[in-house]
Structures are given as C-alpha cells and as structure tokens.
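lol forgot to send this yesterday, sorry. struct tokens for the thing we talked abt
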C-alpha cells in the first residue's frame, strides 16, 4: 500500500505533481506558503547531480515583483545600493537594499527584462517597503510570485540539456544575461543565474506551461543525468560558492528586535555593491559614515581543519596565553567536491583579515555522546568552489 504524502504548505507550485511522483522521503517544509522538499531521494546524491550532471530545483516560491513605469530606473536606483543605470536590458544584477540606517533589509536579483521593465526576486516579501519607497515616483510595483513558475537548472551538463531541448543560441548567453524563447506559444525566459556557483540557468514561464516545460526538460536531460533536488543539496552548494542566505548569514533589518543584530553591506563583504557615486539611495549617509569610521563586524569565509562541520560554532582568537571569543559561524558544510571543511561566519573587527588564522570550537555527537574539538581555520577571500565552466562562453558540451 502506498501512502501519499501531505505537504506542510497550503500552496502547491505548478511543478508539485511532478516532484511528488519522484519523492521517496516525504520530507517537506513550508517556503512562503508553498510546499518545498528538503530532499526527494538523498541529499548527498542530489548534491552530486549539481556538481557532476544537471540538478533541477523548483524556484517558484521565490518572491517576485514586476517594476514598471517612466521612473522605474530612478526608483530602483533610490532603492538599492548599486548603480542600476549600468544594468542594461537583457542583464541581471545582484543587489542589496537597506533601511535608512544602512542595515540590509534583503538581497536578491533584479532582472532588466526590457527597456524600463524590471523583475525583482528575493527570498523575503517586501511589498510594503517597495510601495512606501515608491512615493514620489511614477512607477508601478506588482507582486507576481504566483504568476511566474521558475526552475533552477544547474550543473556541468545543464547547457547540454537545454541545447538538446531546442533552445538555440543559448551558448552565447553570458553570466548574468537573459534570453527569451518561444515554448509552445508562450514566452520562456532563460537567465544564466543560479545559487550554486556552478554552470547553470534559471527558467521562467507562466504556470499553465510549467508541467510541459518540466517534461520537455527531463526528456532532453535523460542521457545527461538530470535529477530533481531539494533544499538540502542546494544549501550545500551555496555554502561552497560563498553565497549568503537571509536568516542564516544575516537577519533582515525589519526582523530584528535587538540592537547590533543587523548587518550593513560593508559588514557582509558586499562593499562592491555600494556605489557612493550615485547621488542618493536608502542608507547612503549611514553607510558613508560607517566607511569613514570603520565597521563593527566582518564576514569571513573559513577553511577549517578536520572534517566535522562547524554548525553554530564560536570563533576564537587563540594565542599561547589567550583565547578570546571574536565571532560565530553562520553556515557550514563538509564540501565533498572540495574535500574541505568550509564555513561562513562573522567576526568582530579588526579580526578576520584574509590569510589570518582563527580557531573554531566544534561540537559533534557520536552515538549520543557529545565531543568537542578546537580546530584551526584560515580566512580565505575566494569562493570555495568556482570552476572555469561557470563563466565559459560558450560552455563546453559536458
């Protein structure tokens, strides 16, 4: 007798029926009201699909806003810290936006779909902030989360799969570019974006064509090792890539109740996203003052000795006669592809300069007994995983 799983979320994405047929674990959670799988077969097996073949992740629950109108560019330039005038139609930009104190509300991607037409994608919902920020601008902000189905298609054979599906010309698409295709009479948008640090794409289409897109994708990918994945595998790959996640590596400024729990872009290693040449943007004055006086915190990427993942660990400065707590780990994983124990953390300034050594206190359980280890860690300034194929144009036929 088979038991059909009952998902936690009230909403089901257009790909739900396809995913539930593949599910063998019945481990789901709620993502913004939608049922999303933690894993469908085995998180480790799904992870290796990302790094060795093609992995498909359902992006539909990601919050999506359409921004249009004569002042759309001026509005976005006021909203986010980077200069959106440099992002031409057909390009995608990673961006952060702050409150008036220069503290990060969230990060996300902004798609310049066509002249004066944008889509902002983020993990959290920000409709109230976006509408409030639109005061004085001739702009329209529309939430379209339920109107656009999305799939992340990631891994070394992803280009080969999409080419086999008939998406001609995709080989000329550069990283953070987007193209439009016809799919059964409907517009299919493909962007060369992703959250894995590998070669990959994201596919965007109307919900009525979602299952047909899924079927065409998996038919084309059968000989390329295509596999649907859940959140756990994606999480492993994003830590390897050094990407940040809200509620894990930082708290959105609107979600905190205690002072000192938020972070600025400068404290998250995102100073390259802050353009002080722009005349004005939310948080500019506070960020300029922080740059002048120095930040309180610093984000660090750590290469940790041993193979015990440093989840929720404290970071210490350790010398012969002193051991002082200087920060904590926010994300950690044993990287199967890098054969490294890697983590993202935050430390108090001036600690954590690239190349410096710190110590991490790791607790792990074996047969109900807890063990403690002090592991040496080196601060690195590069992603742990950044293969040449990620930016190769055209990608090779893997």
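and heres what i got for the seq, position by position
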């Amino acid at each position: 007798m088979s038991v059909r799983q009952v998902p936690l979320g009230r909403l089901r994405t257009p790909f739900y029926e396809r995913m539930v047929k593949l599910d063998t674990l019945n481990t789901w959670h709620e993502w913004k009201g939608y049922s999303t799988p933690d894993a469908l077969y085995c998180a480790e097996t799904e992870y290796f699909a990302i790094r060795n073949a093609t992995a498909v992740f359902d992006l539909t629950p990601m919050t999506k806003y359409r921004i249009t109108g004569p002042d759309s560019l001026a509005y976005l330039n006021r909203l986010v810290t980077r200069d959106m005038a440099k992002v031409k139609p057909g390009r995608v930009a990673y961006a952060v936006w702050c409150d008036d104190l220069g503290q990060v509300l969230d990060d996300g991607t902004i798609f310049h779909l066509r002249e004066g037409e944008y889509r902002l994608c983020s993990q959290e919902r920000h409709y109230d902030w976006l509408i409030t920020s639109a005061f004085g601008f001739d702009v329209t902000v529309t939430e379209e989360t339920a109107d656009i189905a999305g799939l992340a298609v990631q891994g070394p054979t992803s280009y080969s799969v999409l080419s086999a599906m008939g998406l001609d010309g995709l080989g000329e698409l550069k990283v953070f570019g987007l193209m439009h295709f016809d799919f059964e009479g409907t517009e299919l948008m493909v962007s060369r974006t992703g959250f894995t640090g590998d070669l990959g794409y994201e596919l965007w289409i109307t919900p009525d064509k979602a299952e047909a897109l899924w079927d065409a994708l998996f038919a084309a990918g059968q000989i390329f090792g295509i596999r649907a994945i859940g959140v756990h595998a994606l999480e492993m790959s994003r830590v390897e890539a050094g990407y940040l996640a809200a509620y894990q590596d930082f708290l959105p400024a609107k979600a905190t109740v205690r002072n000192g729990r938020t972070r600025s872009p400068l404290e998250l290693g995102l100073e390259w996203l802050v353009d002080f040449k722009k005349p004005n943007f939310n948080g500019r004055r506070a960020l300029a003052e922080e740059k002048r006086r120095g930040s309180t915190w610093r984000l660090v990427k750590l290469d940790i000795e041993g193979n015990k993942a440093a989840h929720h660990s404290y970071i210490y400065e350790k010398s012969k006669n002193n051991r002082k707590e200087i920060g904590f780990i926010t994300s950690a994983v044993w990287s199967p592809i890098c054969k490294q124990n890697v983590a993202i953390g935050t430390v108090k300034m001036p600690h954590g300069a690239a190349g410096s050594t710190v110590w991490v206190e790791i607790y792990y359980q074996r047969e109900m007994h807890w063990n403690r280890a002090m592991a040496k860690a080196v601060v690195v300034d590069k992603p742990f995983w950044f293969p040449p194929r990620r930016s190769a144009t055209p990608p090779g036929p893997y």
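The chain has a mean pLDDT of 95. anyway ping me if u want another try
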